[in-house]
Amino acid sequence: MPFRARHLLGIAPLAPAEIVEVLDLAERYVELNRRTDKRADALLGMTLINLFFEPSTRTQASFELAGKRLGADVMTMPVAHSSVKKGETLIDTALTLNAMRPDLLAVRHGASGAVALLAQKVDCAVINAGDGQHEHPTQALLDALTIRRAKGRLSRLTVAICGDIAHSRVARSNLILLGKMENRIRLIGPPTLMPAGARDLGAEVYDDMRAGLTGADVVMMLRLQTERMDGAHVPSSREYYHRYGLDAEKLAHASPDAIVMHPGPMNRGVEIDGTLADDINRSVIQDQVEMGVAVRMAAMDLLARNLRADRCARAAGVMA
Known about the structure:
320 residues; alpha/beta; 9 strands
């Protein structure tokens, strides 16, 4: 099954075969990115615009690098100094950008569904770089690639996702992707940070860290997203770390070869022990960063192919 999507707005619409296709192509870009000459021409002559309404370091830089390594012209719009701050609506911003005729648009927005709305108003391929508490598809794909490279497979694994599940688009996208690939998923966190109906999402739910980690092959830690909280969800950072922060003692309950992940940015001493985060024998956090560039290259490459095919079909229809 070929990758058929025109946009990458979430993991939910993707078939398992499409996920594998993205990961297989990303493997090739991992090798390219480790060469001295990292240039490719998959997006030669095309334009990528990065539109980030929320601050980002890893994701924004990753998209910029990915676009440039594929040969695209890349522009990152400084939203803090744009017309958005003057009251321009998202729709008007979309129409303005569309008039510039970009080919790819990577968008991060604080409102769930905003990126999908924008995608309806433009003629280019749109990639969701994170929208509210909804989805972050490229993060889930890079996590999947990291897991597959570390464990040798992406199915029949026990994956523990720990921490602020309720506010995490990373958790949601990973839950969907890992479920599609037939893994056993455990959600671990305090009841105040667990979404309603979590068990209906096909995961086991634990509020005891040690019990949830028992036998886990993958331990995925999440950041406390205090900026999305409307009140006190945890007593204190110290208490949170005591109960839900990952340290060597808690990790000992997982499988001996379990890997440790974190999407970043990390709060050391709150979500994870700093020494453990830097442990090259257990932590794959820096691998996640590397895989992010390769996965975004693969996603943009595949979307660009579909965009070109769509444009050719429309041009042929007009000529006929």
